[in-house]
Amino acid sequence: MLAAIRLAGRAPSVHNTQPWRWVFDGTRLHLYGDIDRCLTSADPNARQLVISCGAALHHARTAFAAHGWHTDTVRMPDPAQPWHLAAIDFRPWPDPPAGIAERARAIDHRYTDRLPMLEPDGFARILPELRMLTSPHDIELDVLDDDARQRVAAASDHSSATRQYDMMYQTELQWWAGHHDMPEGVPPNALPSDAESAHVDVARTFPSVPHSTRRAALDDRSRLVVLSSASESKPAWLHTGEALSAVLLACTAAGLATCALTHITELPTGRTTIAGFLPHPALPQVVIRVGTSPDDTEPPPTPRRPVADVYTEPRT
């Protein structure tokens, strides 16, 4: 159990807030959203919090499956407890589908790459798998073409400009990003410098970090992938997070780099812009940059809270 919870804790979350709490009652494992970790300015409806918890849920289910356990999951099991997001029962699963073990191994290797990337090598080959992985969650996966990128980049810039003088948003961002030796938040070594950010046209603007010029000769050539839902609800957001996790782990297993972006979908104008490029009516939830990293080594892992901080079980 503890090994799976540790892997679940490696899931991506907005600003690395890790807004989840796990409770094992001796039979079932329960997932709760930690509303105290909600970003009140960037995420007033807790949409990104629930998406983050969905990613942790999928990470956990992937880890259990790799250890031979099928996870029968009830989402939103108790209407009287709105932050009780999932309840999991277990039964043996000696022969899980192909790819589960590989995606479970990818959990410890996945990271958010905020630097410019090369074009994703073999992207056309992996795209059918990505769509297959998202479809059980009723989440649509679309790839934006090059004609859409300039408009999406403009929406990204508009989001940053709109937030520039929002003191509550900026204070929140400064609290969660750019600090050393913290078990949460985005550390400085995971952030791009101003010079590096200039080479990435679709990105959230984070606090400045010391000057560096990693990949200085490279302009971002990643592909933009959009995950969208048919409705705006906690179940839809939870499924979005699960689909996000599946996509990121499959890309990592295929040797691709990823960066999940939610800043564009925080504001109505950004969502409207992205929705206009989709071939079907849908509500954009997350944009993902998918590319190939030109670097041979993985960066150090971003910090995570100790398992004891996010998990409780019956006392013996």
Structure, described:
The chain is an alpha+beta fold. The protein has ten helices and nine strands. It has a five-stranded mixed beta sheet with strand order 3-4-2-1-9. A four-stranded antiparallel beta sheet has the order 5-6-8-7, with helices on both faces. Helix 1 (2-8) crosses helix 2 and helix 3 (100-106) crosses helix 8. The mean pLDDT is 96.
Encode the helix/strand succession as letters. Answer: HEEHEEHHEHHHEHEHEHE
**Low-pLDDT segments:** none
Mean pLDDT: 96
Question: Level of helix content?
Answer: 25-40%
Strand content: 15-25%
Report how far the terminal alpha carbons are from each other: 16 Å
- Output the radius of gyration: 19 Å
By DSSP, the count of extended strands is 9
User: Can you list the strand order of the major beta sheet?
Assistant: 3-4-2-1-9
Report the structural category. Answer: alpha+beta
Main β sheet profile: 5 strands, mixed
Question: DSSP helix count?
Answer: 10
- From the spread of the alpha carbons, the general shape counts as globular
